[in-house]
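REQUEST FORM: STRUCTURE PREDICTION
Request ID: SP-0412
Submitted by: Lab K.M.
Chain count: 1
Length (residues): 344
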Amino acid sequence: MDEIKNLVDVKNFKIESERRFYSANHDEIEAGLTTDIYFIKTMEILRHMGLSKKKVVAEIFPRRAGILCGVEEVLNLLKDKDIEVYSLAEGESFEPKDTVMRIIGSYEEFGMFETVLLGMMAHSSAWATASRHCREAAGDKVYICFGARHVHPAVAPVMERAAVIGGANNASCILAAKLLGREPSGTIPHAAMLVAGDTVSVARTYDEIMPPDSPRIILVDTFKDEAEEALAVAEALGRALEGVRLDTPSERGGVTPELVNEVRLRLNQKGYNYVKIFVSGGLTPERIRELSAAGADAFGVGSYISGASPIDMTLDLKMVDGTPIAKRGRIPGPVDNPKLKRIM
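STATUS: Completed
RESULT:
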């Protein structure tokens, strides 16, 4: 698909009548079809005036502090452009109004992609930042991103990849894990127990047929008291059982520190001190700290990461043809950040 150059190209673009999904595919993103129309109009005006090839320095800055992510996608978007790009590395922290990326080159080379590259960084950085909050709360303990169900499937792998950049140990979304060169993490949902009608039989079958590298972590809150179910599963699987998962719904009070503590003590009393306790369900950094102190060993975090509000990113032109410039309210000229490294 050719890159959109002008309003005629926009007018001539037609949606296929049998299109199945509303998300943009890779070709459409690269062609500029997800940009704002006013950037196409801008390019038309500047070309007509003979000014589109002016060399500019553009800088991107955030409105609030966070962890940078989305840089690799921006590089892939701009890889064939005749420009220089300086940036913080993915996973690096920034403060409000820090320069996180600088682009130098002809405005015509990248100007129409402002919407696209800002969007790539704004949401990924927000997800990575939320994930970093969870990492700080969990300390050295494991936590996995379970957020794919809360976002559109087109961006689920982007979100869970960002979560790992921010500090999650892994992702449950298959494509996200594969993009990171990993295998996805996860065991089984309540559906398995509900269809089978019994937790212990599912646990035994899981242990029997799953590959050795698939952790034996079993949900224990489907039918019975969590402590009772945990003990039954531990008795059935013995040393093969790596952990039990608590995901008690809010209708029954959710997973509380008291529940975690009770399950831990009852397992210990029966000699199952090697069985870890994995918790999930509406976790936040505050809840992670509380449950960790109560004895939880690992965490599954979903909506706190997936629901993070985008970090507003702004792109300003700071120089045109070597002359410092800025719109009113901003200071002309580049704003230095020693953490910037040339990446393209």
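NOTES: Residues 126-306 form a domain with the TIM Barrel fold (CATH 3.20.20.70).
Reviewed by: T.R.
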